[in-house]
Every structure is written in structure tokens, then in C-alpha cells.
Design brief:
There is one protein chain. By secondary structure, this protein is an all-alpha fold. The chain has two domains: 16-45, no CATH class; 62-159. Helices cover 62% and strands 0% of the residues. It has six helices and no strands. α2 (70-105) packs antiparallel against α4. The longest helix has 36 residues, at 70-105. The termini are far apart. It is found in: Mitochondrion inner membrane. This is NADH dehydrogenase [ubiquinone] 1 beta subcomplex subunit 10. Its main location: mitochondrion.
Length: 180
């Protein structure tokens, strides 16, 4: 005896509209399925690597380039712009994770999202140390000079680095001779 939730068996001969629908669907679907099975899937199997973005080789940084080597400086500039874009995208992803966690947990977000917020704050601090206060159209030489000036300042003022929570590099303070 059939239960009340069982479906009736399919009819022996389907209705005409169903036959027409299936025929039209097979006309549309067959070339697409054939193209995918015969062309796309073999190409994907041949190029089986886990990276979906283009990989660039690392080039020398601006401090490793000669002063007259324009090609090296240009490559360093492009490398710097790619690195900045990657760092900005990572920061955007971390920011989005933090916002989603805070929205999801609501009032409990201070406890539940602490590690995510700490990761974002650390990444934002590092991004600002590297790229901040330089304007929108800066060059790699500007960033290099900022890094150089910051390292000199940290050497001259080791207590400042400790107050900022930066790790001690073990460098002795730089001796500054008085100009006569």
C-alpha cells in the first residue's frame, strides 16, 4: 500500500510539450556540454597549478639598483606598485573580515572578534608605516627615503621606538658629530 507522501510513477509516454521542451533543451545544451568536455576541461587539466593570478619574478629593489641604471629603477618602481596593490588588497580583506565579524556578533564582537581586529590593526599599522604620509602619486625613491629617514630617527631616538612598541633592532644609537 503506497504511503501518502509517495509520488506517482512517471507516465509511460510523456506529454508532447515535454518532448518538445527536452528536444529544444538538448539543441541548446549539447554544443555547450561538448565544448566544455572536449576543450575546456582538457586545457584545465593540462594547466593544473594552484595560482590563478600572474606571478612576477622578484626584481632588485631600488637600493640595489645603480644610479644610472634606468631599467632597474623602472622595474623596481613597477615591483613597488605591485607590492603596494597587494598590501592594499590584503588590508581591504582584513578590514572586511573585521566588519563582517562585528556585524555578525553584535555586542559580543569585542570578545569574539578580538583576534581578527588585532590582525587588522597590526596590518593597518604596518601599511601606514610603509605607505602612509606620502601622497597618492609617490615613487619608490620617496618610499626608500622615508624608510631611510625612519631608520635614522630610530637610531637617534631609541626610546621613541620602545614607546611605539616596535622591536629593538639591537643597533647602537648613531653618533652625531657636531658641525663646525
Amino acid at each position: 500500500m503506497p504511503r501518502s507522501g509517495d509520488l506517482p510513477p512517471p507516465p509511460e509516454n510523456p506529454p508532447t510539450y515535454e518532448k518538445v521542451y527536452n528536444k529544444i533543451w538538448s539543441i541548446i545544451d549539447t554544443p555547450i556540454t561538448t565544448f566544455r568536455e572536449k576543450i575546456v576541461e582538457p586545457l584545465q587539466a593540462k594547466n593544473n597549478y594552484p595560482y590563478y593570478h600572474r606571478q612576477y619574478r622578484r626584481v632588485p629593489t631600488i637600493d640595489q639598483c645603480g644610479t644610472t641604471d634606468a631599467v632597474c629603477q623602472y622595474e623596481a618602481e613597477l615591483q613597488y606598485k605591485r607590492d603596494k596593490e597587494v598590501d592594499s588588497q590584503i588590508l581591504q580583506i582584513l578590514r572586511q573580515r573585521r566588519v563582517e565579524c562585528m556585524v555578525w556578533y553584535g555586542e559580543d564582537s569585542k570578545e569574539k572578534c578580538k583576534s581578527i581586529a588585532d590582525d587588522y590593526d597590526e596590518a593597518a599599522k604596518n601599511w601606514f608605516i610603509k605607505y602612509g604620509d606620502m601622497g597618492a602619486c609617490h615613487k619608490v625613491k620617496d618610499a626608500y627615503m622615508k624608510q631611510k629617514h625612519r631608520l635614522i630617527y630610530e637610531r637617534r631616538h631609541p626610546d621613541w621606538a620602545e614607546r611605539q612598541g616596535l622591536p629593538a633592532k639591537g643597533r647602537p644609537p648613531m653618533e652625531v658629530e657636531a658641525m663646525e
